[in-house]
């Protein structure tokens, strides 16, 4: 949190709210962002606590965009998963329960040597087209005070992913699958604030994945893993803290709600121990609804550089971890997202190209 408070000393532009900031015609921007997200959940089975799990992921993302015309922007994002990790507290051995014919953690021995499951590496790049039918004018030209945009993108498959273990036990990072990406955003300039709305949809497709047993031997060469799809709604307002001719500092207050669908993934990733039989097939993890509230800081150097930092905290509804086992997350789990980004605006004339005035 101390780091977040110091970030305004670093350096970002005051064209519009972050979610609707676009380069002008024949200009572009480039950004570098560090992002993190995670979950801390208690596991329960038939009302008994059977351990706890923490999952976290750190990404580094390089992005660039270019406005081919006013309100028509082409973009690309190149993500790297620095570390994706799942770890357990007080894990238990899964035993066979004759009464149910499946596995159970109740009354089982504690496990002392469960290592975290981790991975990382290059994730699938994505390509985007943004259309903005409504763009707010620069100060002094108050023809329009609102910006509205629609974005469609496509994420390509990873060469490796977190779902697939190699023969040596190492894993990649990220979702692995192709995905259709949709986003809509709206912001409105007010006298002393800028409220905004944003809606994003990530529709994941299946990806062939090799399933391996505990010894690294191939069980299925092309299991059709389907990562979760997501719908996310965010509403917020940017409030000015300091205004100067060449820079501005603002506070971003926001709330977000979302839905994560079920997903078909390999067994044994989100539980500390499973029966050997479930490793031979894909399991289904249940869906969930989440809510978060967040705080951000932004420092904008007009038409130059912008730096932003923020964190969102919240919780999500309980969900079944793997469908063959009666283990669910407990209500009150903690989820978080956060990040730091720096965006450079390429506003100087390049190769003799000139943008429209303003």
Your description of this structure?
By secondary structure, this protein is mostly beta strands. The strands form 4 sheets. It has a 12-stranded antiparallel beta barrel with strand order 1-2-3-7-8-9-10-13-14-17-18-20. It is elongated and about 70 Å long. The N terminus is likely disordered.
Distinctive features:
358 residues, mainly beta, twelve-stranded antiparallel β-barrel, two-stranded antiparallel ribbon, 20 strands, elongated, disordered N terminus
Largest sheet: 12 strands, antiparallel, barrel
Q: Would you identify the regions where 5 or more consecutive residues have pLDDT less than 50?
A: 1-15
Question: Helicity range of the residues?
Answer: under 10%
Rounded mean pLDDT score? 89
Task: Indicate the overall shape.
Answer: elongated
> Would you count the extended β strands for me?
20
Strand order of the largest sheet: 1-2-3-7-8-9-10-13-14-17-18-20
Percent strand: over 45%
Task: Lay out the secondary structure.
Layout: H1 2-6, E1 28-45, E2 48-69, E3 72-89, E4 95-97, E5 102-104, E6 117-122, E7 126-134, E8 146-155, E9 179-188, E10 194-204, E11 207-212, E12 218-225, E13 230-243, E14 247-260, E15 263-266, E16 282-285, E17 288-301, E18 305-316, E19 328-329, E20 334-346
Antiparallel strand pairs: 1-2, 1-19, 1-20, 2-3, 3-6, 3-7, 4-5, 7-8, 8-9, 9-10, 10-13, 11-12, 13-14, 14-17, 15-16, 17-18, 18-20
Task: Offer a concise description of the structure.
By secondary structure, the chain is mainly beta. 1% of the residues lie in helices and 56% in strands.
């Amino acid at each position: 949190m101390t780091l977040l408070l110091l970030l305004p000393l670093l350096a970002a532009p005051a064209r519009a709210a972050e979610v609707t900031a676009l380069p002008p015609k024949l200009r572009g921007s480039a950004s570098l962002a560090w992002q993190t997200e995670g979950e801390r959940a208690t596991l329960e089975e038939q009302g008994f606590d059977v351990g706890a799990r923490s999952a976290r992921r750190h990404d580094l993302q390089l992005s660039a965009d270019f406005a081919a015309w006013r309100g028509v922007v082409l973009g690309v994002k190149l993500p790297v998963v620095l570390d994706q990790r799942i770890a357990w507290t007080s894990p238990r051995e899964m035993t066979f329960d004759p009464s149910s014919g499946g596995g159970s953690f109740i009354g089982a021995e504690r496990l002392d040597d469960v290592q975290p499951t981790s991975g990382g590496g290059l994730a699938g790049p994505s390509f985007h087209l943004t259309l903005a039918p409504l763009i707010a004018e620069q100060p002094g030209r108050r023809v329009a005070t609102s910006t509205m945009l629609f974005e469609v993108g496509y994420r390509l498959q990873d060469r490796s992913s977190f779902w697939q273990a190699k023969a040596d036990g190492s894993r990649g990072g990220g979702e692995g699958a192709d995905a259709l990406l949709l986003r809509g955003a709206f912001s409105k300039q007010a006298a002393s604030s800028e409220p905004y709305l944003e809606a994003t949809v990530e529709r994941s497709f299946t990806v062939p994945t090799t399933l391996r047993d505990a010894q690294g031997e191939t069980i299925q060469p092309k299991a059709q893993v389907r990562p979760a799809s997501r719908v996310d709604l965010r509403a917020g307002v940017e409030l000015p803290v300091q205004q100067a001719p060449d820079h501005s500092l603002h506070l971003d207050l926001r709330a977000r709600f979302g839905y994560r669908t079920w997903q078909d993934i390999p067994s044994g990733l989100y539980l500390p121990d499973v029966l050997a039989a479930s490793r031979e097939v894909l399991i289904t993890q249940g869906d969930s609804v989440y809510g978060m509230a967040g705080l951000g800081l932004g420092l904008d150097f007009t038409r130059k550089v912008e730096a932003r930092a923020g964190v969102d905290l919240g919780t999500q509804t309980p969900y079944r971890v793997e469908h063959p086992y009666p283990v669910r997350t407990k209500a009150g789990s903690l989820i978080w997202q956060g990040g730091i980004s720096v965006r450079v605006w390429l506003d100087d004339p390049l190769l003799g190209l000139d943008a429209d005035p303003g």
